[in-house]
What does this fold into?
Amino acid sequence: MKDQKSGKIKITQVRSTINRPAGQKRTMEALGLHRIRHSVVHNATPQILGMVNKVKHLVRTEEVK
It folds into this structure.
């Protein structure tokens, strides 16, 4: 993922949270992701980027203009 200081990012869940640690499940829930192919748009704050980094193997991100 690119270094983004501001702007918005689109986060899409691409893998299941089944058999994942509870912390990863709670992070996905906090991001607002509930099922595969579900997408949300968030501001690219350091807090959101840190959450995305924890579950980067379960999601795909892209910059929104």
